[in-house]
Design brief:
The structure holds two protein chains of two kinds. Chain A is 39% helix and 26% strand. By secondary structure, chain A is an alpha/beta fold. In chain A, the strands form two sheets. In chain A, strands 6-7-8-3-9-10 form a six-stranded mixed β-sheet, sandwiched between helices. In chain A, strands 2-1-4-5 form a four-stranded antiparallel β-sheet. Chain B is α/β, with parallel strands linked by helices. The chains are: A alpha/beta, B alpha/beta. The interface between A and B is medium-sized, with 27 and 22 residues. Chain A: It holds the Pfam family ABC_tran.
C-alpha cells in the first residue's frame, strides 16, 4: 500500500535536511509502529506523507498504491484516503465542527465521484461514531477543536478518521497527553478500523500505546532513516533497553 | 476645512452643478426647502468635492475618485424583490420613488417627497458641517424617501425591510425614522442595484431612538460593481436605550458609508458591527463618529474587513467622550484580512477623551489567512479554494452570529457566502 523509497526531505524555509534516505514499506492490513528518539524525524515524516507544504522532498519517492503522490496537494492525498491524526490538532475559531465534518466528507466524496451525503444520513453517521468514542454532543456544537481538552482533541481526530474511512491512517503521537481511560477509548476506535484493506502507521515514543494497538511491525527511526525493523517484540526490546543499543549497532 | 484657491471644476463637479440648474424646477419642495437646497449646492460649489486635504476625506479623495455623474434617468428599469428575511414587512423605494402604503401596524409612514412638498423637511436639510459632502449633495437633490415613526411602547413583530432598488441614473433619498419610547424593532435598510452602467445613490438615514427603545438596524449595501454609493446614518440615542447597528458592505465601486451617533441618554448601549467585503478595483470607506455626551453609557464597535484584488478599504472611527461623560465604557476594534499583495486598507481609530473616569480602547489588526488552519482543512480533503472560503467566512461570521435571530443570521450569511463565491 505504501512504499517510501530513499526519501530525502528538508524544511522548505531554511533547507535543514530532516529525512535522509528513508525506506519503508507498509502493506494493506498491516499496522506498523514507528518509534524513535526525539528529533529523529517522526513527525516530519507524518507531515510529508500528508502533503504539508512546509517541507520539500529533494530525492526519492513515496508510492501509494503504486503511484507517486509527491505531486498531489494535501486535499488530494486526503481524498485518496491518506489520513493524518495530528499530534496537536489545530483550533479554528469560527468554523463549526459539524460544518467542517460535513464539508470534509462531502468534498472527499465529490473528489471520488460519489454522491454527497444527505443531511439526515450525515447526522446519523456522526451520532453513531461520536457515541462509540464517548464524545458528548455538546462538543460537536463548538467551533473546531476550540476549548477542547487534550483528550477531547485526540478523540475528535479519531472521530474524523472513523467518519472519513481512510485507507492509510497515520497516527502521530496520538497517545501524548492522554490518561489511561482516554487512551483505551482512542485505541478501541483505531482497532475498530483495522481491516485487510487498510493500513495504519502508529508513530509513538512509548511502548504503552502499542499494548492497546498491537502492531505487526516495528521500525526504528533515527536521524531521518529507518535503522532497524522487526516484529512487535522489537518494541518490548526498546522499552527495556532504550534506543542506545540499536543506535550504536547502526552507527 | 482648509480654504484653497478655486481650481477648475472637475467633470463631475460641473455635471452636478448643471444637473442642479436643470432639475431645479422639478425638485419637490416649498420655498423654505428650495432655499435650503440653494444653500447646500452653493456650499458644495464653493468648496468643491472634498479632496485628501480635507481631514475627514483624507483616505477617500472624492474629487479624484468620483470621475463622472450619471444623468438622471426617470425611465430606468428597476423592480422590487423578495425581502431578505421571509415574512418581513416591506416598504419599497424603487427607481427613486417611495411607496409608503402597506405599513405594518404601529408605524406611521409618509413619503419624504410629501415632507419636502409641505416644507416640514426644510429644517432637516442643513449639512453637518463644511466637510459634509454627502449631506450637501443629498440635501441639494433629495426627491424622496420615507419618514417613519414607531409609536411609544409598540413593538414590530417582524423585521421591517426598507428596500431601495436602484436602476440606472441617480437617486437621492432620506429616511428620518423615530423610534418612540420603549419601542422595539428590527429594521433592514437594504440597497440593491439593477444598474449595469454605474448609478449614483446618496442616502441619508436620520434615526432618533427615544428613551428605553430597543432597536436593531441592519444596513445592507449591495450596489452594482460600477455604482457609487454615498450613505450616511445619523442617530441620537436616548436614556436606557439599546441600539445595535450592523453594516454590511458587499457591493459598489466607490462606497462611502458614514455613521454619526450621539449618545445623550444615561444607561444606554450602542453596538456597531460591520463587515466590509471588497474586491476588484473598488474603494470602500466606513467612517464613524460617536459622541458619548452623558455619564454611564457603553459602546462597542467591531469592524471586520476582507480585501481582495486591488481593492482599497478605509475605516475611520472616532469616539469622543465629553467632560461630563464619566463611567463611559467604549471599545473599538478593526480587523482586516488582506488577501492580495495589491489590496490596501487604511484604519484610523481616534479617541478624544475629556472625562477622567472612563474605560476606552481601540485596536487595529491586519492579518493574512493562517497557513496552519488552511493546511489542517486541506489535510481533511477540503480543496484549497473551499478551505480559504471557510476561513474567510469564519473571520466575518463571528460578528454576524452576534445577531442571534436565526433567520437574519442565515440571510446575512447567504449574502456573504454569495459574495465570496464570486470573488474568492
Amino acid at each position: 500500500m505504501l512504499e517510501i523509497k530513499n526519501l530525502h526531505a528538508r524544511i522548505a524555509e531554511d533547507g535543514t535536511e530532516i529525512i535522509r534516505g528513508l525506506n519503508l514499506t507498509v502493506k494493506a492490513g498491516e499496522v506498523a509502529a514507528i518509534m524513535g528518539p526525539n528529533g529523529s524525524g517522526k513527525s516530519t515524516l507524518s507531515y510529508i506523507l500528508s502533503g504539508r507544504e512546509d517541507y520539500e522532498v529533494t530525492e526519492g519517492d513515496i508510492l501509494y498504491n503504486g503511484e507517486s503522490i509527491l505531486e498531489l496537494d494535501a486535499s488530494e492525498r486526503a481524498a485518496k484516503g491518506i489520513f493524518l491524526a495530528f499530534q496537536y490538532p489545530v483550533e479554528i475559531p469560527g468554523v463549526a465542527t459539524m460544518q467542517f465534518l460535513k464539508v470534509a466528507m462531502n468534498e472527499q466524496r465529490k473528489y471520488r465521484g460519489e454522491e454527497e451525503l444527505s443531511t439526515p444520513d450525515f447526522m446519523r453517521r456522526v451520532k453513531e461514531a461520536a457515541a462509540e468514542l464517548k464524545i458528548a454532543p455538546d462538543m460537536l456544537k463548538r467551533p473546531l477543536n476550540v476549548g477542547f481538552s487534550g483528550g477531547e482533541k485526540k478523540r475528535a481526530e479519531v472521530l474524523q478518521m472513523a467518519l472519513l474511512q481512510p485507507k492509510l491512517c497515520v497516527l502521530d503521537e496520538t497517545d501524548s497527553g492522554l490518561d489511561i481511560d482516554a487512551l483505551k477509548i482512542v485505541a478501541d476506535g483505531v482497532n475498530a478500523l483495522r481491516s485487510p484493506d487498510r493500513a495504519v502507521i502508529v508513530i509513538t515514543h512509548y511502548q504503552r500505546l502499542l499494548d492497546y494497538i498491537v502492531p505487526d511491525t516495528v521500525h526504528v527511526l533515527y536521524k531521518g532513516q529507518v535503522i532497524k525493523s522487526g516484529p512487535k517484540e522489537l518494541a518490548h526490546e526498546l522499552e527495556a533497553n532504550g534506543y542506545a543499543d540499536i543506535i550504536g549497532a547502526a552507527a | 476645512m482648509t480654504a484653497h484657491t478655486a481650481s477648475p471644476m472637475t467633470a463631475a463637479e460641473t455635471a452636478l452643478m448643471d444637473a442642479y440648474t436643470q432639475q431645479l424646477g422639478d425638485l419637490p419642495g416649498d420655498g423654505a426647502v428650495l432655499s435650503a437646497r440653494d444653500t447646500l449646492i452653493s456650499e458644495l460649489k464653493a468648496s468643491g468635492l472634498p479632496t485628501r486635504r480635507v481631514e475627514a476625506w483624507h483616505y477617500t479623495d472624492l474629487r479624484a475618485l468620483l470621475r463622472s455623474i450619471p444623468a438622471f434617468d426617470a425611465t430606468a428599469f428597476a423592480r422590487g424583490v423578495e425581502p431578505l428575511v421571509a415574512g418581513s414587512a416591506v416598504l419599497r423605494v424603487v427607481g427613486g420613488h417611495a411607496d409608503g402604503s402597506n405599513a405594518p401596524e404601529g408605524l406611521t409612514v409618509t413619503t419624504y417627497a410629501q415632507s419636502l412638498l409641505s416644507g416640514t423637511a426644510a429644517g432637516d436639510l442643513a449639512a453637518r458641517g463644511n466637510d459634509d459632502a454627502i449631506g450637501q449633495l443629498n440635501g441639494s437633490f433629495v426627491r424622496d424617501g420615507l419618514e417613519i415613526s414607531l409609536a411609544d411602547d409598540s413593538a414590530l413583530a417582524q423585521p421591517l425591510e426598507l428596500q431601495i432598488v436602484q436602476g440606472a441614473g441617480q437617486s437621492h433619498l432620506r429616511f428620518p425614522v423615530t423610534f418612540g419610547m420603549r419601542s422595539r424593532a428590527t429594521v433592514i435598510e437594504r440597497h440593491l442595484s439593477q444598474s449595469e452602467t454605474g448609478a449614483l445613490v446618496s442616502s441619508v438615514s436620520d434615526l432618533i431612538i427615544e428613551d428605553g427603545a430597543d432597536v436593531t438596524w441592519i444596513l445592507v449595501q449591495e450596489q452594482g460593481a460600477a455604482d457609487t454609493h454615498l450613505g450616511q446614518l445619523n442617530f441620537e440615542l436616548g436614556a436606557d436605550a439599546q441600539f445595535r447597528l450592523f453594516v454590511i458592505n458587499a457591493g459598489g465601486k466607490l462606497v462611502r458609508q458614514e455613521v454619526h451617533g450621539v449618545v445623550n441618554g444615561e444607561g444606554s448601549d450602542f453596538k456597531l458591527r460591520a463587515v466590509n467585503l471588497m474586491g476588484g478595483e473598488s474603494h470602500t470607506d466606513l467612517t464613524f463618529t460617536l459622541g458619548h455626551d452623558v455619564p454611564n453609557t457603553t459602546s462597542t464597535e467591531i469592524i471586520r474587513n476582507v480585501v481582495f484584488d486591488r481593492a482599497r478599504g478605509v475605516f475611520q472611527g472616532q469616539i469622543r467622550v465629553a467632560q461630563d461623560a464619566q463611567k463611559t465604557d467604549a471599545k473599538m476594534a478593526c480587523n482586516t484580512l488582506l488577501l492580495s499583495d495589491e489590496a490596501d486598507f487604511s484604519a484610523k481609530p481616534e479617541l478624544e477623551i475629556f472625562a477622567d473616569d472612563v474605560q476606552c480602547g481601540h485596536g487595529a489588526t491586519v492579518i493574512d489567512l493562517n497557513p496552519t488552519h488552511l493546511y489542517y482543512l486541506q489535510a481533511r480533503g477540503i480543496p484549497e479554494k473551499r478551505a480559504r472560503q471557510m476561513l474567510i467566512n469564519a473571520f466575518v461570521d463571528e460578528v454576524v452570529e452576534e445577531l442571534e435571530d436565526e433567520a437574519l443570521v442565515a440571510a446575512l450569511e447567504g449574502i456573504i457566502e454569495g459574495w465570496l463565491d464570486s470573488h474568492a
